Amino acid sequence: MAAAVLSTNGSSYMALPEPMLPALDDTLGAMLIGAMISTILYGLTLNQISRYYELYPVDTPLFRIMVPTLFILETVHTVCILESIYFYLVANQANPASIARFHPPLKLVIPITAVTTLLCHSFYARRVYLFGSHHRKSVVIAALFSMAKMGFCVAATVEVFSSPLIITIEKYSWMVSASYGCTFVADALLTGTLIYILLQSRTGFKRRVNLRARARYQSSLFNRRTDNIVETLALYTTNTGLLTSTIGVVVFIMALVEPNNLIWAGVGFVSNKLYANAVLAVLNSRRSLASSMFENPTEAEVISTRIRSRRTHPNLGADPNPSQ
Fold it and tell me: Which residues cross the membrane (predicted)?
C-alpha cells in the first residue's frame, strides 16, 4: 500500500510505501495474554509466600533459603515481562518497527526461567532421594535432563544477547523446544516416581473394622487416615505434575512447529509461574496434611515423638512379653 504525498511545488504527488505492520495476534498479542495470566499467578505466588511465613516461622534452613530465592526470581521475571509489554505496546505503540527489536529485559526471561525450573526440580528430586537408595537412580536421570535443559537455555541466552533483532528467534527456537522437552522428561520421571512411592506406602486398610478390639480399631483408624492422606498426596502430585508437564509440552510443540511467532513465549511465561506455585503449595500443605491424619494436635505430637524416638532407639516401645 502506498501513501500519497504532495510534492514541494504543490502540483504533483508521489507515492511512498507505508511500513508493513507485523501480525500482532500471534506475537505481541500472545505475549500480552501470557503476561496477564502470569501476573495473576504472581499474585498467587505472593499469597503462598505470605502463608508460608505465617505457617512456618521456623523451618528447615534449606527451605528458608529457597522461598525468598523463588520470590526474587518470580519478581524479576514479572518485572521483565511487564516492562517489555509496556515497551512494545505503550512506549512504541506508534512505531511498528519496534517489534523487530529484542528488548533487553525480555532477554532475561530465558535464564530466569531456567534457574526457576532447576530450583523446582531440585526440590522434587530431594523428596525422591530421601525415600531411599533404590529410588536414587531416578533422581540421577532426572538431574541429567534438568541440567541438559539448563545447557540449552544458556546457549539460547547467549544467542539472544548477541542479536538485537527479535526475528533471529527462529534460529534458536529449537533450543527452547529442546529445553522444554528435557523439562517434560524430568517432570514425568520425578512425578511418576513420587506417585509410585506414595501408592506403595499405603497400609492396605480394609473398610471393615473389628469394633470388639479397641486397640485394633484405633490402629486401623489411624491406618485409614494414613491411606486417605497418601491418596490425597498421590492425587495432588498427579495434578500438579500433569499441569506443569502439559504446559511444558505445549511450549515444546509450539516452539518446534511455530518458531516464527511468540505463542510459545506467552505460554512459557505461565509455565514459569506454575512451577513456583506448585512448590510453594507443597510446602504450605505439610502441616494440614499431617494434622488431618490425627483427630487432634496432641495425638499428632505424641505419634511424631514416638516416631522420632524409634528412629533413635529401634527397640523402644517393643513388647517386653511378646505373645508366643
Answer: 27-44, 65-88, 108-126, 138-158, 178-199, 233-256, 262-283
Give the residue from 280, 249, 272 showing the smallest Cα distance to 35: 272
Q: What is the pLDDT of residue 71?
A: 96
264: left (phi over 0), alpha (psi -120 to 50) or beta: alpha
Q: Are 123 and 66 in contact (CB under 8 A)?
A: yes
C-alpha cell belonging to residue 105? 529485559
Is 121 part of a structural domain of the chain?
Answer: yes
262-318 pLDDT, tens digit each? 888 889 999 999 999 989 988 888 776 656 554 444 444 433 444 344 444 445 444
What are the cell numbers at 122?
531440585
Residue 126: all three cell numbers together: 530431594
The answer to whether the beta carbons of residues 237 and 195 sit under 8 Å apart is yes
Instruction: Name which of 210, 197, 196, 201 is nearest 228 in CA terms.
Output: 201
Q: Is the pLDDT of residue 324 over 60?
A: no
DSSP summary character for residue 317: T
Look up the domain containing 262 and give its range. Answer: 23-294
Q: How far apart are CA 174 and CA 171, in angstroms?
A: 7
pLDDT range class, residue 256, cuts 50, 70, 90: confident
Return the bridge partners of 15, or none.
Answer: 4
Residue 324 lies inside a defined structural domain of this protein: no
